[in-house]
Design brief:
With 256 residues, the protein is mostly helical. It has seven helices and no strands.
């Protein structure tokens, strides 16, 4: 995990040389975290509406449903703006660095920038989700944190291995040695999908833990629904990080 954070930090300062663009990127990452919190809030509101539908006054029910729809629209819009506007930020940041790079190197820098922002956003969202779930239920939160730490350690090993593999491919290209496409693409895809599989297994473990705590009465019904959505969101973030790290490794080695 230390290797992952070190490589992300190095790429961050390499790609965004000015404080202005670093600040903008940080804002984008925080916006992604805000989207995650909002989606969990939507899940909690949705659970409250479903479970209390028969006891809530009609006027209050309408307010809840209206709030649910409004919050959903705002979150989706914020996510859209964050994804689209970052292209302009990358373009301006690269222009201000005044680096004379070959087209091939610049292409890989663009790919590296996209993977960097995606991974940072997913990691920040992951932290926010973990904190949110821990606040909802500390017992489940402790189990969740242990599982996440183990997964990220495994991701770190896969990432380290992928960096070595990509260096070998670059060396082979320089020495004009032919490497079949199946090997070049397969190495990255296998590592990414292995990480995806591991995150899926972790989700299954957490689901069993959630069911156990729910049956024992340690978690309220409304919170169980939110925790379920949180686990799904967490798994989505971990899957994106696993696949993104392998693409990041490739772009990192080829952009130097």
């Amino acid at each position: 995990m230390k290797l992952i954070l070190g490589q992300l930090k190095a790429a961050f300062f390499q790609l965004f040389a000015t404080p202005k663009h670093r600040t903008i990127l940080i804002v984008f990452v925080l916006l992604a975290a805000l989207v995650s919190v909002s989606e969990l809030a939507i899940a909690k509101l949705f659970g409250h509406i479903i479970l209390a539908e028969e006891t809530l006054p009609k006027s209050q029910l309408i307010i809840y449903i209206g709030s649910f729809l409004l919050l959903f629209i705002v979150v989706r819009t914020a996510h859209f703006v964050q994804r689209i506007y970052r292209v302009n930020v990358f373009d301006n940041a690269f222009k201000e660095t005044n680096l004379e790079l070959k087209k091939r190197k610049m292409l890989w820098r663009w790919k590296l920038a996209f993977e960097l922002t995606t991974i940072l956003s997913k990691l920040t969202s992951l932290v926010v989700v973990v904190v949110f779930l821990t606040i909802l239920n500390w017992r489940f939160g402790i189990i969740n944190i242990i599982v996440i730490v183990v997964i990220l350690q495994i991701f770190g090993r896969l990432f380290k291995k992928q960096l070595k593999v990509q260096r070998k491919f670059v060396k082979a290209r320089i020495e004009k040695m032919h490497v079949p496409h199946a090997i070049r693409f397969g190495a990255r895809i296998r590592s990414g999908e292995l990480g995806n599989l591991i995150s899926g297994i972790a989700m299954l473990i957490l689901m069993v833990a959630l069911l156990g705590l729910g049956i024992s009465g340690s978690i309220k019904a409304a919170n169980t629904i939110v925790l379920f959505f949180g686990i799904r969101m967490q798994n989505s973030n971990l899957s994106a990080i696993a696949i993104g790290l392998m693409r990041f490794a490739k772009a990192k080695i080829r952009s130097v």
